[in-house]
Specification:
CATH superfamily of the largest domain: Vaccinia Virus protein VP39
Order of helices and strands: HHHHHHEHEHEHEEHEEHEEEH
Structural class: alpha/beta
CATH class of the largest domain: Alpha Beta
Shape: globular
Radius of gyration: 22 Å
Strand content: 15-25%
Number of domains: 2
Distance between the termini: 71 Å
Length: about 290
């Protein structure tokens, strides 16, 4: 609900446009026409909280202080997520991708698996990934499993680090997940160390290219929709570069790599669409084996 004080804050269309430009320049996040009303309301709410009467005051403050800019950005970020939010995606991870990785890496020493959750919000996604890995990979404790979870929101990361969630947030998980991977603390449930140690959290602005090594899987669910077409294409290219050959990219249902001009192979698994980076070495090996047989 918008308070009367919030609606009385005066901000011009030009000032709103300046704020949108600053946010896109620094965070890559584009508040386009489809979110114009949402943006205007949140700006006025923020101005009301800060007791600012005019948009020019807010512009001056967020341009001059990184702390104030971060607080303004937090006001605008919507952290909509949940455990097992897209069951079909996690079934694809469980039934196809992880068994494939298990076979591929079984004889490696050490056996290692690196997964990136880009835009992890309050942690439900990376913890769901860790639970799926623990369920699927036999003797997962013997593997070096690293799930890197990043987000631009420091508040969301602080919540995720704690790993404590109310019971209602866990309703999408299977009953045995609750008993195996969480401990009850009063009305809340805390992620057990077995799962927690798989996940490391770090602040990251996806608009800035930071190389973090190679990954076997990258999850970027419902994040690309907040970027311009140009930034989206650049980010998909980075994901491609960061993936190991044969690695997989998982996107939200409304997102696609189609316009990015990147050589991902789309794969339908059940009700989900995932993207694989071609493994040229495996292709050559398969071709050679076929030639030998002939």
């Amino acid at each position: 609900m918008v308070t009367q004080q919030a609606t009385s804050a005066v901000v011009s269309e030009h000032e709103l446009s300046e704020m949108r430009s600053l946010l896109e320049q620094r965070s890559g996040i584009l508040f386009d026409v489809s979110r114009e009303r949402f943006f205007s309301i949140r700006v006025r709410e923020h101005m009301s909280e800060k007791k600012m009467a005019h948009g020019s005051e807010l512009l001056r403050v967020i341009r001059g202080s990184n702390v104030e800019y971060d607080r303004f950005l937090e006001r605008l970020l919507t952290q909509e997520t949940s455990f097992n939010r897209y069951p079909a995606i996690f079934r694809a991870l469980e039934n196809k991708v992880l068994p494939e990785m298990h076979v591929k890496k079984f004889w490696e020493n050490p056996r290692a698996l690196r997964i990136w959750s880009a835009g992890c919000a309050s942690g439900e996604e990376p913890y769901t990934i860790a639970i799926t890995v623990a369920d699927t990979i036999e003797s997962s404790e013997a593997w070096n499993i690293e799930i890197l979870a990043t987000d631009i929101s420091k508040q969301a990361l602080e919540f995720a680090e704690r790993g404590v969630y109310p019971r209602r947030e866990l309703e999408t998980l299977k009953p045995h997940h609750l008993t195996s991977y969480f401990t009850q603390e009063g009305p809340n449930f805390k992620v057990r160390p077995k799962i927690r140690k798989m996940v490391s959290f770090a602040p990251l602005n996806l608009a800035q290219a930071v190389y973090m090594g190679k990954f076997d899987c990258i999850f970027c669910m419902n994040v690309l929709i907040y970027f311009s077409d140009e930034r989206r294409a650049a980010l998909i290219q980075r994901f491609y570069d960061y993936l190991e050959p044969g690695g997989y990219l998982f996107l939200g249902h409304a997102e696609s790599v189609a316009k990015a001009g990147v050589n991902f192979q789309p794969i339908v698994v059940g009700d989900s669409l995932i993207y694989q980076k071609p493994d040229n070495a495996a292709t050559k090996k398969s071709t050679a084996a076929g030639q030998e047989k002939s």
